[in-house]
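User: My collaborator sent over this chain with a note saying "see what the structure looks like." That's all I know about it. Can you take a look?
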Amino acid sequence: MTNQHPITPPLELVDSIWNQFKTGPTRNLLTSEAFREAITKASQWGADQELEACCEWLTCGGLLPRLPALTESLLAARRPKTPSLKEQALAALGEMSIEPCLINGVDANAAVRAKYNTIRRALEALND
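Assistant: Without extra context I'll predict from the sequence alone. Here is the result:
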């Protein structure tokens, strides 16, 4: 009998990763990039198993009424969602500088700020 660690990837996952390399563009070559990708997938799987076990432990037996909310907070903190394209665009737009530029007392950036505000309003109107 072997002593298997509780976060050992299941054989199906190992086979899936192996088959991907046998049939993908890296077949017959174990490049450092392919190896890194395999290690990353296995690590992500292990981390997900551990996080799932922690969340299950927090809610097991109804220890405290707050724990389901704590579990949701833990999941949100440890597995944040990738920002939507809209959120990314708004963040990028927010990083842009559109400071007033006066040339001979005339606001030279008024047209740029108007376009900026049009783009910002359009992005805000989009659904996530």
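A starting point for your reply to your collaborator: The CA atoms of residues 5 and 46 lie 11 Å apart.
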